[in-house]
Each structure stands twice: as structure tokens, then as C-alpha cells.
Write a structure and sequence with these properties.
Order of helices and strands: HHHHHHHHHHHHHEEHHHHHH
Strand order of the largest sheet: 1-2
Largest sheet: 2 strands, antiparallel
Number of domains: 2
Shape: globular
Radius of gyration: 22 Å
CATH topology of the largest domain: Glycosyltransferase
Oligomer: single chain
CATH architecture of the largest domain: Alpha/alpha barrel
CATH class of the largest domain: Mainly Alpha
Number of strands: 2
Strand content: under 5%
Structural class: mainly alpha
């Protein structure tokens, strides 16, 4: 088995993060709350702000009108603070519908179709919330550490990493922040040591503030739990807790694990299975389950309590999506009975490695997937940064000539695509299948690829 090397939106209030369902007030109540945003009493202003943040779609138009036309600066400022949360309710409704339609259909056909992180590009809030991506060169080679330096320059004052401000088509601030934390950790920076420890402290504190009472971690304004959002944040907290050993981080990571197994994993008891985007989903998928596999494995290595039933369910799910024979380089499918693909096979093999499978038993699958996969590449048209990442981890563990060839290609591709000057120095542009994910996402994922040599120790001896 492996040993992990443990080396502009206001913060969501606790009341919001504990809510299970958005409120459904009438127009009169909303109008009264908007009026109270300008109250002389702080407690009344704050209470009205909280209610409007949770009021959902019905509050969007009144808040927009107040922001546009109110003569009271206090009303305008508070309306500005409430709007992203009220808008998020609509986004979640459409996102949930997509999870039950486009997402499921795409996975069966071997495609990642629909919302991947946070929400689909066509669901982005847009308008004044979006800041244009920065311009700059992406032409020459700089070191992996420059990627971390770029991340540090782009971190928001409250600790999060903003998706829309850096070219993303959708809100995915928790995902971006979690990936940045993982990239820092991969280079040995923790909440206690390293040149980026202050950035780590702020980022982890922000993630913890977005953890609900039951352990789930959500993007600001959300009440629907997205499995990928939670799993990434839980993974970051587990690794940060294991490396930094700060009590608050460890406690948050433990709560995240308990949510994952008790509240999100499909099935109960001995009937547990994989993980889906929605809690207790009737349609678990390999894409989501791989992120949860990494969270639970990292938590176990970090010394947290992980119910073995969680791993048992994942093993059963992996059996269900393993076709056990190759077709066009694919053994694994994203869902049982779906089309096997090389990308899914790289994820499935990585999950198998984390569960203790022997290298020789996985060799045919990993080899077939690598030979069929268009990567690792950061090219404009054929880049798949997520598959690059899972592939890098899986092939690194497999070792041998397969890894030597992959590693050579990966390093050349990443170095050639990394920014060399101006505001983008050290970063990577999101391209190909993940072009809508933004520069923070791409930079953190690519930095993690370059850190694979010392983030995970080899599971197998040569």
C-alpha cells in the first residue's frame, strides 16, 4: 500500500451553512427585509441580510432593484452581499436537473457532459460578477514553484481562490481553493512551515468556514451538496491535517470523512456502493468516486477514523465499472454498463492502486489506457487536465518504461505551456476539454502533476 508523503464574496455565515432547504418567503416579507437592510440597528440589518441570502430566486429581483436604485448606501452594500447567495438557489435548481439528465447520459456514453465543477458554463451567473481573464504569454518554461507563486499572487484577501476572476465560466471557489491547498502541500508547505504557510492558513480557514454542521463543504450560497466539491475540499483538509497537525484542521477533515460515508455514499451498511454528485445518488459514477477514493485514502493515512465500509463500497463499485476486457484502450466505464474509455480506465486503475491491487494485475489496463490516451498534453485542442492528473498518478505508481515515457512527455508539455511573463507568469491557461475551468484550476492541477514525484511515495518496489 502507499504512504502519502505528509510532508470578493463575503464569507457564508454559519446559519446559512447549516440550512437544509432554502426558505420560500412571500413578496411582502422580502420587501420588508430589503427595507431592513438600511436599519439603524446592526442586529436587524444582519438578520435581514441572512434571510435574504436564503430566500432564493424570489429575492433576486428585489435585491437587484435595491442595488440599482436605493439612495441608502447601507441598503446597496447589503443587497450586493446578499445577491450571490440568492442567485445561487436558481443555479442549484438547474444544476440538480442537469445532474439527473445530461450528466447521467454523458457518463453512460463515456463523456463528461454537463456540470463538472460547481455548475455548467451555461449556468454561470455572468454579468457584473464576472471579471475578464488576464492576458499574457503562455510560451516558455518556468519551474513548478512559479506556479505556486502565481497562485499566491492571486489569492483573495479572505483566503479563497476566485474562479470567475481568472477566466472560469462558472463559480467553483471551493474546488479552486482546495486544489491550491493540495498544490502547496505537494511542495511541502503547511499551515506551520514553508514560504506559503500564511496562504495555507488563510485558504484552510476559508474552507472550514464553508463546512456545514453535518460535515459537508459547499460553495458560498449553496445548500445542495456537490460530491466533487465536497470530496476535493475533504481531500485538501485531510492532507493538510496530516501534514500540519493543527487541531482545527484535523477536526474539520474528520467531519468531512463522516459526511462522505454516512451522508453521501450510496447505500447503507453492507449495501454501500460508490459515490455520485448528489447525496445517496441512485447513479454513482467513477469520475466522482475517484475523488472520494482519494479523500478517504488520504484521511486514513493521516490517522483519521475511516469506516472500512466506505472502502468496501468503493471496491464493489469498481468491480461494477470494470469491463475486464479492453476496447479501444478502455477497460473501465464511468457507470455500470457504460462505454469504457481510456480516461475512465486511468481513474479506475488509480482507485484500484489506492485499494491495494497488485501492479502486475493492473499492468494490462494501465498500458492499454496510456497507449490510447491523447496525453499527457496541455495543447489547445486535445488537453484534458483532469485525465492528465489521474493518469500521471496512476502511471507514476505503475513505474517502469511506461512511466519514463509518460514523464518525459508530461514535463515537456507542461514546461512549454507555462506562462513566462506579466500577470500569467508561472500559470497555465485552461484549454481543451476543461477550457471553462479557469486559470487557477489549470495551474493547481498542473503543479500537482509536477509534484507527483514527492507527493506520493511509490506503492510498488522495483
Amino acid at each position: 500500500m502507499s504512504r502519502l508523503t505528509l510532508a470578493a464574496v463575503a464569507l457564508a455565515p454559519a446559519l446559512l451553512l447549516q440550512a437544509e432547504e432554502p426558505a420560500a418567503p412571500d413578496a411582502g416579507q422580502i420587501a420588508e427585509w430589503v427595507k431592513q437592510l438600511g436599519s439603524e440597528e446592526y442586529a436587524e440589518r444582519r438578520a435581514a441580510l441572512e434571510k435574504l441570502r436564503q430566500a432564493g430566486e424570489a429575492a433576486v429581483e428585489p435585491l437587484e432593484n435595491a442595488l440599482r436604485s436605493s439612495d441608502d448606501l447601507e441598503v446597496r452594500n447589503n443587497a450586493q452581499a446578499a445577491l450571490p447567495y440568492a442567485r445561487a438557489c436558481k443555479v442549484q435548481r438547474v444544476w440538480k436537473a442537469a445532474m439527473q439528465e445530461r450528466w447521467v447520459v454523458g457518463l453512460k456514453e463515456g463523456r463528461i457532459e454537463g456540470p463538472t465543477l460547481g455548475m455548467a458554463p451555461d449556468l454561470a451567473l455572468g454579468g457584473a460578477d464576472k471579471v475578464p481573464a488576464r492576458d499574457g504569454s503562455n510560451a516558455a518554461a518556468v519551474s513548478g514553484d512559479n506556479g505556486l507563486d502565481w497562485l499566491s499572487r492571486t489569492q483573495e484577501g479572505d483566503g479563497h481562490f476566485d474562479a470567475l476572476s481568472h477566466g472560469a465560466d462558472y463559480h467553483a471557489d471551493v474546488e479552486n481553493t482546495a486544489l491550491a491547498v493540495l498544490a502547496y502541500l505537494g511542495a511541502g508547505h503547511t499551515e506551520k512551515v514553508g514560504a506559503h504557510k500564511v496562504h495555507m492558513q488563510k485558504a484552510i480557514a476559508w474552507l472550514i468556514e464553508h463546512q456545514r454542521a453535518d460535515g459537508a463543504i459547499l460553495n458560498p450560497g449553496w445548500v445542495e451538496v456537490d460530491g466533487i466539491t465536497h470530496a476535493l475540499a475533504g481531500l485538501a483538509l485531510a492532507e493538510a491535517g496530516g501534514m500540519g497537525r493543527k487541531e482545527a484542521t484535523i477536526a474539520a477533515a474528520q467531519k468531512a470523512v463522516e459526511y462522505s460515508i454516512n451522508r453521501h455514499q450510496c447505500g447503507e451498511g453492507t449495501d454501500r456502493g460508490g459515490f455520485g454528485r448528489l447525496p445517496k445518488s441512485a447513479a454513482p459514477d467513477l469520475f466522482t468516486s475517484t475523488f472520494f477514493t482519494m479523500q478517504l485514502k488520504s484521511a486514513k493515512v493521516a490517522g483519521l477514523k475511516v469506516d472500512p465500509a466506505g472502502f468496501d463500497g468503493l471496491i464493489k463499485f469498481l468491480d461494477a465499472v470494470d469491463a475486464k476486457n479492453a476496447k479501444d484502450g478502455g477497460y473501465f466505464s464511468y457507470v455500470p454498463g457504460g462505454k469504457p474509455t481510456p480516461e475512465a480506465t486511468l481513474m479506475g486503475c488509480l482507485a484500484r492502486q489506492f485499494m491495494g491491487w497488485k501492479r502486475e494485475d493492473l499492468a494490462p489496463q494501465v498500458t492499454a489506457a496510456v497507449q490510447a490516451f491523447k496525453g499527457p498534453s496541455t495543447g489547445k485542442d486535445d488537453s484534458n487536465v483532469v485525465a492528465n492528473y489521474f493518469g500521471t498518478l496512476a502511471v507514476f505508481q505503475q513505474g517502469g518504461q511506461l512511466w519514463k515515457d509518460w514523464n518525459t512527455k508530461m514535463k515537456q508539455s507542461l514546461v512549454e505551456a507555462q506562462g513566462v511573463g506579466g500577470n500569467t507568469k508561472g500559470s497555465w491557461e485552461a484549454s481543451g476539454a476543461w477550457s471553462g475551468a479557469g486559470r487557477v484550476f489549470a495551474t493547481a492541477m498542473n503543479a500537482l502533476c509536477l509534484e507527483v514525484y514527492y507527493r506520493y511515495l511509490p506503492m510498488y518496489k522495483e
